[in-house]
Structures are given as structure tokens and as C-alpha cells.
Amino acid sequence: MKRILIVKVTSLGDIVQALPVVADIKRAFPGVQVDWAADEAFAELVHWSQGVDRVLCAPLRRFKKTRRWSDLKAIWASIAELRAYRYDYIIDIHGVYKSAIIAFLARSRRRIGYQSQDLGERGAAFAYTGRFGPRPQCDAWHGMRISASEALGYQVDGAPVYNLRVPEPVVRPLPDEAAPVAAFFHATSKDDKKWPLGHWSALGRELAERGFRVVLPWGSDGEREAAGQIAAEVPGATVLPRMSVTEVAQMIDACELVVGTDTGFVHLAHALHKPTVMIFVATSPAHCGVHAPYRSISIGDGQSVPPLSAALEAIDHVYANAPALPLQQRSAAAAA
What we know:
Blueprint: E1 3-7, H1 12-18, H2 20-28, E2 33-39, H3 43-47, E3 54-58, H4 60-66, H5 69-82, E4 89-92, H6 97-105, E5 111-113, E6 130-131, H7 140-152, E7 181-185, H8 197-210, E8 213-216, H9 221-231, E9 238-239, H10 245-254, E10 257-261, H11 264-271, E11 276-279, H12 285-288, E12 296-299, H13 308-318, H14 327-335
Parallel strand pairs: 1-2, 1-4, 2-3, 4-5, 5-6, 7-8, 7-10, 8-9, 10-11, 11-12
Helix pairs in contact: 1-11, 2-7, 8-9, 13-14
């Protein structure tokens, strides 16, 4: 076994949670080269992996929006790079048309993908010469590890290893101060995944009482407005400036605590071994959540809004050094 290509094109959280497949493969086959094909929008994240040998990318998402000639030329150029090596195996752990096309264009006699019922788009099956076994009864992240191990013939062993190294910032992402910093990722791609702003404000006030400073990143004008509403009710809270993906990752790396909804940056916080609480309102924590004993935890049932008290209990679980709230404040939080 000399060279393997992993295809996982998008999105940020899914790519983060797929990275342990690289460590699994390299543990099973010492000396093997592992390449990764991703959309250009997420390629810098894959570059942070210390296990990936070559990152292949193209502006697929951008071209879909712009249809610019320059982006099409970049895609054609990426195909030549994709075909520069012959792979022993291509492992498509995405399972949609665009990932299947990448797998088909790459040079290999062994292209492995999901069974038809497990594909995101069933037409993707045209690209594969072999299939993973039936999707196991586990969360999506461990399922990717199991699928890759079945294809290559090794056993998954131990906790996931993300092996990420975020670039050192030129300027410190957070000001020097004694207070521990808690980042709130309140924004999501869908409204039904949001935790109420009132809950965020109440949680921020409780953490301020504990001595935390709350910071609020954002990615759109609407998210910035919501962050401002939360910050206005939380003593010492700061709405951060617009930041790149790398800058957000550097900020996360400098934080003591991350609380957020089911979004990619909260998955990244978990992968960077930060104390992390992920809040689920409309998606499944059993399928898409994070968990590491006393470090990362998911709350909610995916069908209703978790109460403030659940978030506070989760913070106690992942951040054991945080001072306890006064009894009267905890009682008030439990009633929320």
C-alpha cells in the first residue's frame, strides 16, 4: 500500500470529523501517502492536518455560484493535478455526485463508496468499483472510520485522532487579560437550529458572574446584529470583527471554553481539544454530536429547545475548573 486518496469535499464540520480516518490509515499502513480532495473553500482546514500529504482542491462551490471562466480553468487545472499519481485505493466518504466525479477522474482501479441506500445522491454509485458495508449503528463520525477500515481491511482502534495544527497568528487573536474567554457560536445555517437569543444572553450573564469574558464571532450582517443583541445584555462581552476561517480557528485555539450550536466551528473546537458544549435544537445529537469525557458534550434531543440549565450543567462537565455559581443563581437558571 503506497498511496490512498480520501474524497470528502464539504463542509467544515464534516471534514473536521472525517480527519481521524487519516490517522487510522497511517497507523494501519506505516509509510503510506494519504492525499485528500476537497472543495477550495475548505482546503485550508485540510492543510492543517499533520497526516495529509497532499491536498487537492478546486473552486467547485464558487463556480456553481459565479460560472466564471477563471474558476472553470482552475477546475480543469485541478483535474491534471488529481491525475498526477495512481492510487492503490480511492475512498469516497462523501457520497454525492461531485465526490463521485472526483473519484472517477482520479487514477485507480479501486474506488470505494457507500451502498446505494447510504449515498447522499444515489446516482453517485456510477463511480465505484466496490462498496462499504452497510452503515453501522453509530454516529456519523465513527461510521466514516468504520467504512474506511472495512474498505482497506484494518480494525478501528481507540479514540479519534484529529492531528490538527492551526497556524500561529501574527497578532494575538484575543487581548491579553486574566479572564478566561468563552466563545459563543450562536449562528447557524438554518433558523430551526438556533438556540433563542434570550438563552444566549442569560448564559452569557451567568458566565460573566463566573469570571469569563464572552466573545461573539459572526459571518453575516444578520449574525452580527444578533451578536450585538447578546453582547448588549452580557457585561464585558465583545462582538468580534469579521474574521477569516483561519482567524476564527486561531481565536478558538486561544479560548478556554466554546459553546455553540451544531456548526462547523464548534466541531473544530472539539477537534482542537477545547472544552466544548454543542447545543442541538433540530438535528440529531446521537448522529452528529461531539463527545469526549469531561471535555466535549452535546445537549438537547434534536426536537426541542434545551433549557439554560442543561447548558450550565454541560459547562460544569467540560470545564471542571470553573467556579460554581451561587445557589440562588443556579436555581434561577434551572427555572429558565
